[in-house]
């Protein structure tokens, strides 16, 4: 339940705090005093949109904060799924900065509006005049049936199956749409693939072939230069090796005389060994250089093929050609296996459809099972509310699967005997709507574990004995729910376990809305004014005191 409400800098409210009673809270006040403003602020906690126009002082941020006692209500799972800290007291806050930026928090953790709505929808329900309009829509009527049927688990199962079906059907439809284009492109793609596959491309072969061709094209000169280099180093008649060998011999002699020359002798010996090795390697390379015109022609042909393929596919390297070949192979293979893929996708879609329809039928069965009980309960309550000839019929028709199932629910209503029930939006007056909505809210209250329910003038269009009965129904609901009711009727105001009065304060330079909790004597005066006007007579005051005492005894 709502244990504390704080509103700062919102519309005409500079600062307002409430600590509602756990049972039936009555809110009264003159029209325009700020009752609807309070509801607008609470609506922000439910995730409604806001802008800077709601700021009382446009230079200061607006803060709406509600503390809810949630122990005993099974909502921990929502906190786990949204990765929020759970505590017996849940604090929800909305802030609107002067710049218009809006932020939301649950237990001091920043959340987006979708998460905020999901959490607070389990904490509070507001009935407003908008609900009376919604009552005429099939979607809202279906929600009412689902709430009464308590089919949340079936609805979640169906929605999960529906999403799987939609995904699998989409995969099949997309594949089917692509199939024609893929088949039209098959011949061209297959030609390109076979051309690249026939080339037997190897990564990095272009570089090695270009290098080999360069050697073959210059083989004569390379062979000549290598031979000259060899002869310079190791010519039998006069060479660098022969001269270095003589130098090594001289250093051997001096090294024998003194050890200080030994390092030079070793370096000379090492240089001699390295030079002989180099000469041998040059000789080997010279012998390996082959003036082979046939091999050069073969390489040129191979490189020409690679260059042609690169030009054709607008690339400069073999690696990209190989990637293109692999991509074409995938496309060609996909077309070759297209019938199998289509068959598999269709089978999966059909299986998902079958499972979805089974879930839909189970959900529909649960809904249809409660239609007559709803009609009976609401009929009885409408009779108690002074509409003995009223009748409500609920029709359910099957249709195509939607996110909410295969059912379309229609409420048909008649307030008078002998008049055929018609759709609600066509037949119900304001007072009839109020009584019908009261009956619906009453029967649904026992089906939901909502901590707090707010009624915004649900008593519109009723008076007298009917108002008393509506007040009794609210008092009864308050036994298991916290109720906050905005009303203009003394019969309902007298039912409250706490009474708050909203008024405008004109004492400062700028008008503000304020709220105060009334004492017993103040309640008597307020209800007397609701009965007899601004200056109630002693009779009105006596009547106010009497109905308060009667309800206190009740």
Folded structure, characterized:
Helix 8 packs antiparallel against helix 10. By secondary structure, this protein is of the alpha/beta class. It has a six-stranded antiparallel β-sheet, covered by helices on one side. Strands 8-12-13-3-14-15 form a six-stranded mixed β-sheet. Strands 9-10-11 form a three-stranded antiparallel β-sheet. The mean pLDDT is 85. Helices cover 57% and strands 18% of the residues.
Q: What percent of the residues sit in helical stretches (DSSP H or I)? A: 55-70%
The number of distinct β-strands equals: 15
Q: First CA to last CA: what distance?
A: 23 Å
Largest sheet: 6 strands, antiparallel
Specify the overall morphology.
elongated
| Spatial order of the strands forming the largest sheet | 2-1-4-5-6-7
How many helices does DSSP assign? 19
Question: What do the pLDDT scores average to?
Answer: 85
Structural Rg? 45 Å
Low-confidence stretches: none
State the secondary-structure class. alpha/beta
Features:
single chain; 554 residues; alpha/beta; 6-stranded antiparallel β-sheet; 6-stranded mixed β-sheet; 19 helices; elongated; DNA repair protein RecN; RecF/RecN/SMC_N
How would you sum up this structure in a few lines?
The protein is of the alpha/beta class. It has 19 helices and 15 strands.
Topology:
Blueprint: E1 2-10, E2 13-18, E3 24-29, H1 35-45, E4 62-69, H2 76-81, E5 89-96, E6 102-106, E7 109-111, H3 113-120, E8 124-127, H4 129-134, H5 138-149, H6 152-198, H7 205-217, H8 219-234, H9 240-257, H10 262-288, H11 293-312, H12 318-336, H13 338-384, E9 391-402, E10 405-414, E11 422-423, H14 424-427, H15 430-445, E12 452-456, H16 464-477, E13 482-486, H17 490-493, E14 498-505, E15 512-517, H18 520-532, H19 538-553
Parallel strand pairs: 3-13, 3-14, 8-12, 12-13
Antiparallel strand pairs: 1-2, 1-4, 4-5, 5-6, 6-7, 9-10, 10-11, 14-15
Helix pairs in contact: 5-13, 6-12, 6-13, 7-11, 8-10, 9-10, 13-15, 15-16, 18-19
């Amino acid at each position: 339940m709502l244990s504390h409400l704080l509103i700062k800098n919102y519309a005409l409210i500079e600062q307002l705090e409430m600590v509602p009673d756990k049972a039936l809270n009555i809110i009264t006040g003159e029209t325009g005093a700020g009752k609807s403003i309070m509801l607008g602020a609470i609506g922000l906690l439910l995730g409604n949109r806001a802008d800077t126009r709601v700021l009382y002082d446009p230079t200061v941020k607006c803060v709406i904060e509600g503390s809810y006692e949630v122990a005993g209500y099974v909502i921990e799972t929502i906190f786990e799924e949204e990765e929020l800290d759970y505590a017996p007291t849940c604090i929800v806050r909305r802030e609107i900065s002067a710049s218009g930026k809006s932020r939301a928090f649950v237990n001091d953790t920043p959340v987006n509006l979708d998460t905020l709505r999901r959490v607070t929808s389990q904490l509070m329900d507001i009935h407003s005049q908008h609900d009376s309009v919604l009552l005429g829509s099939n979607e809202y009527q279906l929600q009412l049936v689902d709430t009464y049927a308590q089919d949340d688990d079936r609805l979640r199962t169906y929605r999960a199956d529906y999403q799987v079906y939609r995904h699998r059907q989409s995969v099949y439809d997309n594949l089917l749409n692509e199939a024609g284009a893929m088949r039209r492109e098959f011949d061209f793609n297959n030609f390109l693939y076979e051309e690249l596959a026939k080339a037997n491309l190897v990564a990095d072969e272009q570089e090695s072939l270009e290098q080999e061709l360069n050697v073959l094209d210059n083989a004569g000169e390379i062979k000549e230069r290598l031979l000259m280099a060899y002869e310079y180093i190791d010519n039998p008649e006069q060479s660098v090796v022969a001269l270095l060998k003589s130098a090594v011999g001289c250093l051997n002699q001096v090294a024998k005389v003194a050890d200080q020359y030994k390092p030079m002798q070793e370096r000379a010996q090492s240089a001699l060994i390295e030079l002989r090795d180099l000469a041998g390697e040059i000789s080997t390379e010279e012998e390996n250089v082959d003036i082979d015109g046939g091999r050069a022609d073969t390489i040129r042909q191979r490189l020409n093929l690679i260059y042609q393929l690169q030009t054709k596919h607008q690339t400069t390297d073999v690696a990209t050609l190989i990637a293109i070949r692999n991509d074409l192979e995938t496309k060609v293979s996909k077309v070759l296996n297209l019938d199998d893929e289509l068959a598999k996708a269709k089978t999966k879609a059909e299986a998902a459809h079958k499972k979805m329809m089974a879930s839909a039928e189970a959900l529909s069965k649960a809904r249809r099972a409660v239609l007559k009980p709803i009609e009976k309960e609401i009929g009885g309550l409408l009779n108690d509310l002074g509409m003995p000839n009223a009748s409500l019929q609920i029709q359910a028709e099957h249709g195509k699967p939607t996110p909410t199932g295969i059912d379309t629910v229609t409420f048909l209503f008649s307030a008078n005997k002998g008049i055929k029930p018609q759709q609600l939006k066509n037949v119900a007056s304001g007072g009839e709507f109020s009584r019908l909505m009261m009956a619906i809210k009453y029967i649904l209250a026992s089906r939901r574990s909502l901590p707090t329910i707010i009624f915004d003038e649900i008593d519109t269009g009723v008076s007298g004995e009917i108002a008393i009965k509506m007040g009794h129904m609210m008092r009864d609901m308050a036994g298991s729910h916290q109720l906050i009711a905005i009303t203009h009727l003394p019969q309902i105001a007298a039912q409250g376990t706490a009474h708050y009065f909203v008024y405008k304060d004109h004492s400062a330079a700028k008008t503000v809305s304020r709220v105060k909790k009334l004492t017993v004597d103040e309640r008597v005066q307020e209800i007397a004014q609701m009965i007899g006007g601004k200056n109630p007579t002693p009779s009105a005051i006596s009547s106010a005191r009497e109905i308060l005492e009667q309800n206190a005894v009740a």
